[in-house]
Amino acid sequence: MMSRRREQAWWLFSKELKDTTVVEERDEDQRGRPYIVTPLGARVKRVLVCGQVTQKRAEDTQVRLTVSDPLGPVYVNVFASDFNEKVMAEAAKVNVNDYIVVMGRTNVFRNSEGNLYVSVNPEFLRPADEMTRAFWNFRTAHLSIRSSTPSGRHSS
Questions:
Q1: Is the pLDDT of residue 30 over 70?
Q2: Per-residue pLDDT, 77
Q3: 3-state secondary structure (DSSP) of residue 106
Q4: Domain span at residue 37?
Q5: How many domains does the chain have?
Q6: Who contacts 11 (Cβ-Cβ below 8 Å, separation ≥6)?
Q7: Full-model pTM
Q8: Is 64 among the domain residues?
Q9: What is the DSSP letter of 79?
Q10: Which long-range contacts (CB under 8 A, 24 or more apart) does 114-117 make?
Q11: Residues near 61 by Cβ (< 8 Å), separated by ≥ 6?
């Protein structure tokens, strides 16, 4: 039996997600979410972000968070389901101004004017501290700079 490898998570700043305009076309028979292609050329389906929670809206079936990194906001949507009840419990404990780290799949939405919006549906969400945030900022900046070199950009 062949096992499927989990898609690697790309360490991305909010600006790269926000500036994404390309979504790979898929055949109708393909399942799952499409890849996005970021302005720096990364082909992404899963991301790792870290930042400060600036807004939280909790409802019975979902928690919506706005997480800000040094370049802007990332929108995180946690939906109640059996698959991610641990993530939902963690999101419920989060408060505005807390630092968190989130790993999850990208979700794309195109409005009627054709604008593309990218949010994250977390598979992992944990509290973070100043040191974790500083490390994430440094490493993400380093990976972003490397993307313009011939050796390319690496994910983790």
A1: no
A2: 95
A3: strand
A4: 10-146
A5: 1
A6: 47, 48, 49, 136, 139, 140, 143, 155, 156
A7: 0.84
A8: yes
A9: E
A10: 116/20, 116/21, 116/23, 117/75
A11: 79, 80
